[in-house]
Predict the 3D structure of the following.
Amino acid sequence: MEFATARNRMVESQLISRGIKDERVLETMRKVPRHSFLEEALVSQAYNDHPLPIGEKQTISQPYMVALMTEALELQGHEKVLEIGTGSGYQTAILAELAEKIYSIERIRSLSAKAQRILDKLGYFNVVLVVGDGTVGLKEEAPFDAIIVTAGSPDVPQPLVDQLAMGGRLVIPVGDRYTQSLMQVVRVKEGITKTDLGGCRFVSLLGQHGWEDS
Ligand code: SAM
């Protein structure tokens, strides 16, 4: 099947059918070539309804989870966004289509380097990739209109809340090492509001304000 056809099917059968409504998110998921972020041997599975390995014991998230998290960021196009967990760079590309400037932090250098090569090749030049511990955020570029964490955390890291602009959205899986709840945290005048968007399962967020690297 042609990749474009596979992407259209993915959007219909995995995203719209499960309640993703943001037209800009759906359009972007129809456009970004997910298969370009995978090893050759996995390309035929690129548009299937599950996560896939990307090396270094890490994964590219299920398309539905990428769409759900992106929708919860409520992007209009003008935002400065921070992503924690670049991984393959696929979610980064989705964000780059939907916002003005993306900073993405990855702790594993080889993944970041590979993601950089793919993003460059695809022409995503509004992205800055950083290697380091994303749980401390990126103070020098704060505040951010939106922050997305694509790894499971024991709690909401306080530095990320502190680096959110007023009205800014933080989307993060919070729970134990095996299952989490996807939380949307919004910074408001009085502090923060939290909304539970449902259960999920992510690899661990390792770092100063995440899980210990054992
Ligand atoms: N969004 C990615 C994609 O589209 O391919 C998937 C990310 S994968 C589920 C989670 C990533 O978070 C892994 O690449 C992992 O190395 C990274 N990670 C874990 N803890 C981190 C931290 N403290 N700072 C930055 N990256 C971290």
Remarks:
- The chain has one domain: 2-200.
